[in-house]
């Protein structure tokens, strides 16, 4: 035991005395390329960068909002390869080659998307913070219904889902609105779906 201490102690002392606090490791980055609103974009990103942060912080597309950053509010909803997703819950590097549509890609002030125009007509927003996610979600909801994808509110899984208010409310339930503009949002979505509210 004595011999063992004599051989290990000298090595331990200089190491402790000369130790520098280890700095943070350099981030691991990768080049990712995808199409955003019809334009090819390439970014060198920290592997940990969420798709939401890539859009907002790197591409400065701030229409997509960060509410909770935890998949709970739907403010960050965008459309990727035709399906709506929460951009805060996915890493940018997972979307190599994807086609991404944000609210900026749906339409602008001079050429509103029909869903944007319906939100305006029906007062579907108040503060507007949730609105980009609501609109992206609503556009994808109508595509989901048209594609026959059932929801929790679909009673008959063998029939095409209808465009009922219950279907729309259920499918939009992942998009929270602090202002409580839900009734007007449902009216807007219903109008675009081809039915009168
Ligand atoms: S910011 Fe993504 S769900 Fe809330
Ligand atoms: S309009 Fe304010 S959070 Fe929805």
Helix content class: 25-40%
Named once each, the bound ligands are: FE2/S2 (inorganic) cluster
Order of helices and strands: HEEHEEEHHHHH
| Cross-sheet strand order for the largest sheet | 2-1-5-3-4
Total number of beta strands:
5
Total helices: the number is: 7
Mean pLDDT: 91
> How many angstroms does the end-to-end distance come to?
86 Å
* Major sheet attributes: 5 strands, mixed
Q: Are there runs of 5+ residues with pLDDT below 50, and where?
A: 1-13
Radius of gyration: 24 Å
| Structural classification | alpha+beta
How much strand? 5-15%
Q: Given the C-alpha coordinates, what overall shape results?
A: elongated
Structure characterization notes:
This protein is an alpha+beta fold and 197 residues long. The chain contains seven helices and five strands. The chain has helices spanning 2-18, 51-58, 103-106, 114-121, 131-146, 165-171, 182-192; strands at 29-36, 39-46, 77-80, 83-86, 99-101. A five-stranded mixed beta sheet has the order 2-1-5-3-4, sandwiched between helices. A hairpin with a 2-residue loop joins strand 1 and strand 2. The longest helix is centred in the first third of the chain and has 17 residues, at 2-18. The protein is elongated. Residues 1-13 have low confidence and may be disordered. The protein binds FE2/S2 (inorganic) cluster (2 copies). One FE2/S2 (inorganic) cluster binds next to loops.
């Amino acid at each position: 035991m004595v011999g063992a201490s004599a051989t290990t102690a000298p090595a331990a002392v200089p190491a402790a005395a000369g130790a520098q606090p280890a700095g943070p490791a350099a981030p691991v980055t990768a080049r990712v390329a995808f199409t955003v609103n019809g334009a090819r974009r390439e970014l060198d990103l920290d592997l940990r960068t969420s798709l939401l942060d890539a859009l907002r912080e790197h591409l400065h597309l701030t229409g997509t909002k960060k509410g909770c950053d935890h998949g709970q509010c739907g403010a960050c909803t965008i459309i990727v390869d035709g399906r709506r997703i929460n951009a805060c819950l996915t890493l940018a590097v997972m979307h190599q080659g994807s086609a991404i549509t944000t609210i900026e890609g749906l339409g602008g002030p001079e050429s509103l998307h029909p869903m944007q125009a319906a939100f305006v007509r029906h007062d579907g927003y108040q503060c507007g913070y949730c609105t980009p996610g609501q609109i992206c979600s609503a556009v994808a909801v109508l595509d989901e219904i048209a594609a026959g994808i059932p929801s929790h509110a679909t009673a008959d899984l063998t029939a095409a889902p209808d465009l009922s208010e219950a279907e729309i409310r259920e499918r939009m339930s992942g998009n929270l609105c602090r202002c409580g503009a839900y009734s007007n949002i449902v009216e807007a979505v219903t109008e675009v779906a081809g039915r009168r509210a």
